[in-house]
Amino acid sequence: MAGEGEEDLPRDAKIVKSLLKSMGVEDYEPRVMHQFLELWYRYVVEVLTDAQVYSEHASKSTIDCDDVKLAIQSKVNFSFSQPPPREVLLELAASRNKIPLPKSIAGPGVPLPPEQDTLLSPNYQLVIPKKTASTEPEETEDDEEMTDPAQSSQEQPQQQQTSELPSQTPQRVSFPLSRRPK
């Protein structure tokens, strides 16, 4: 990229180019310079707009250096975050490293921690009521005519009670999702 029409570049583009060169960047896409210029212009416009708001709030007719400094400081405080101090990071690392890693499963392939320590387990369960097979054959219309209706009505509630008891205790089933072929 170096040396391509440097004399017909705008002053801001030359500054971006010299900044890239000072950082050791020799080869880059031509679009990189345009992206840096766009970022630079957007940042300057936002800072000057904020400075104008601060100036108007202070009932001044023009923007002065203090308004620009305040706008830049507010941008730095609210837009960029500083990393925590080294001592804090070392303290966090020491407290985290006190907890031992889970034991890995020895076997072929990628070693994985125990199943209870992974996120690969199924994350849902289905409740399926147990179905009991009735031991008595179903009655047909012909059978009903032959039996005493009073006797059959007493037997039916007992059969319903016995068939309902096992179905009240649900059976839990879980299974992993398989990936769909694409």
TrEMBL record:
Residues 136-147 have a biased composition (Acidic residues). Residues 101-182 are annotated as: Disordered. It comes from Eutrema salsugineum (Saltwater cress). Keywords: Nucleus, Transcription, Transcription regulation. This is Transcription initiation factor TFIID subunit 9. InterPro entries: Histone-fold, TFIID-31, TFIID_subunit_9. One of its GO terms (molecular function) is protein heterodimerization activity. The keyword Plastid does not apply. GO terms for biological process: RNA polymerase II preinitiation complex assembly.
